[in-house]
Amino acid sequence: MASIFMDNLGKVYTGGVRAVTGVNLDIADGEMIVLVGPSGCGKSTLLRMVAGLETISEGSLKIGDRVVNNLEPADRDIAMVFQNYALYPHMTVYNNLAYGLKNRGFAKSEIQRRVNEAAQMLEIGQFLDRKPRQLSGGQRQRVAMGRALVREPAAFLFDEPLSNLDAKLRVQMRVEIRQLQKRLGTTSLYVTHDQLEALTMADRLVVLNGGQIEQVGTPMELYSRP
Ligand code: ADP
Ligand code: ADP
């Protein structure tokens, strides 16, 4: 587990577009923060700065007790879950889950333990020999989640992970992801433009507007105001 500390974070893209300004946010151990706000408000820029996929122009970012501004994504102890499942089509589910661990030189027994544990949690154990095309959309999304789980990261970063699913599956998966996140107690930052998804999943919501934090609060705090 880890906390995430954002101290006056800002982003100016090459070319001069200012996407994020003066963001201060402490995410507690095990907390699920959902970032919401209109299209273009800077949600994905902020998430990608935490992930290390965008450089940080201003301010300081800590994950746990380390300043990670200049660390590569692989060194930040985070795992991302994307909407486009980013699964390898020619590999089995097992190998999709194992691939990153193999690359990082984990022992075979450790890989098996992590893959089997993740598969069990996500109830995809019976699909380990299948290829992604032989799975339903929901099953594929679980495999994508599994690829993040096997890393046993300090934090999960979710980038609109459910937006490719149909409405019914979205409702089901948001409950599953939330339960899993609580059970693991993994600090999470979750980006969505879906209000209901945000309300049902968040410990706290962060509303961004024009690259700045407009409001922060629990769903109760934000939606019971007059
Ligand atoms: P959101 O995820 O809330 O839709 P983004 O973080 O994608 O918002 O975008 C925030 C702002 O930054 C927008 O004005 C967008 O046009 C701009 N932006 C995003 N990516 C880039 C980029 N690679 N280069 C320049 N401007 C960008
Ligand atoms: P895999 O995507 O299967 O883990 P690699 O180990 O080749 O494959 O990963 C390529 C790079 O992407 C590495 O730097 C790795 O740490 C990073 N990476 C892979 N998966 C994730 C993820 N879910 N979240 C964040 N970084 C990831």
Automatic annotation (TrEMBL):
GO terms for molecular function: ABC-type transporter activity; ATP binding; ATP hydrolysis activity. Keywords: ATP-binding, Cell inner membrane, Cell membrane, Membrane, Nucleotide-binding, Sugar transport, Translocase, Transport. One of its GO terms (biological process) is carbohydrate transport. Residues 4-226 form the ABC transporter domain. The keyword Nucleotide-binding applies. GO terms for cellular component: ATP-binding cassette (ABC) transporter complex, substrate-binding subunit-containing. Belongs to the ABC transporter superfamily. This is sn-glycerol-3-phosphate import ATP-binding protein UgpC. The lineage of its organism: Bacteria, Pseudomonadati, Pseudomonadota, Alphaproteobacteria, Rhodobacterales.
